[in-house]
């Protein structure tokens, strides 16, 4: 398994980007054990993210850096959608995890503040290599 030092050496979080247009993003929905679901939401143009670490071989988790308007408003709106889509589990809602895949790096309307899509693709390839056996 890849060590924390190996992952940190890739400087994943230095690749900050924002959405150049409104875009529908999928995300994980975490509930108190034993269930995790997924959903999607229209995220507004200008919302910025920083990848934070490996999710799987073709995807990285990402953190919200800032949101056009207020990040709390975004999370409140997402929670309301979860209330509708997962009504039986809503009272067990624990949070959300955003992620980005290789495919999304090619198809989403992204504007990089630092780093690049090419650098993130390189990081994903490295994480799949035998040097980082977490996803090899």
Structural write-up:
There is one protein chain. The protein has 136 residues and is an alpha+beta fold. 29% of the residues lie in helices and 36% in strands. It has 4 helices and 7 strands, in the order H-E-E-E-E-E-H-E-H-E-H. It has a 7-stranded antiparallel β-sheet with strand order 3-2-6-5-4-1-7. Strand 2 and strand 3 form a beta hairpin. The protein is globular. The model has no long low-confidence stretch (mean pLDDT 89).
Distance between the termini: 9 Å
Strand content: 35-45%
Number of strands: 7
In N-to-C order, the SSE pattern is: HEEEEEHEHEH
Shape: globular
Q: Which secondary-structure class do the elements indicate?
A: alpha+beta
Q: Which sheet architecture does the biggest sheet show?
A: 7 strands, antiparallel
Mean pLDDT: 89
- The low-confidence parts are none
Number of helices: 4
**Computed CA radius of gyration, to the nearest angstrom:** 16 Å
What's the helical proportion of residues? 25-40%
| Strand ordering within the main sheet | 3-2-6-5-4-1-7
């Amino acid at each position: 398994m890849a060590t924390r030092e190996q992952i940190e050496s890739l400087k994943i979080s230095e690749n900050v980007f924002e959405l150049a247009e409104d875009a529908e993003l999928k995300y994980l929905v975490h509930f108190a054990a034993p269930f995790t679901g997924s959903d999607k939401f229209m995220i507004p143009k200008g919302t910025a993210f920083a990848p934070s670490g490996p999710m799987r071989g073709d995807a990285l988790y990402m953190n919200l850096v800032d949101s056009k308007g207020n990040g709390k408003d975004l999370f409140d709106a997402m929670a309301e959608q979860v209330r509708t889509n997962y009504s039986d589990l809503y009272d067990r809602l624990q949070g959300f995890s955003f992620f980005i895949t290789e495919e999304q790096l090619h198809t989403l309307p992204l504007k990089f503040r630092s780093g690049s899509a090419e650098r993130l693709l390189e990081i994903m390839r490295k994480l799949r290599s035998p040097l980082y056996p977490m996803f090899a």
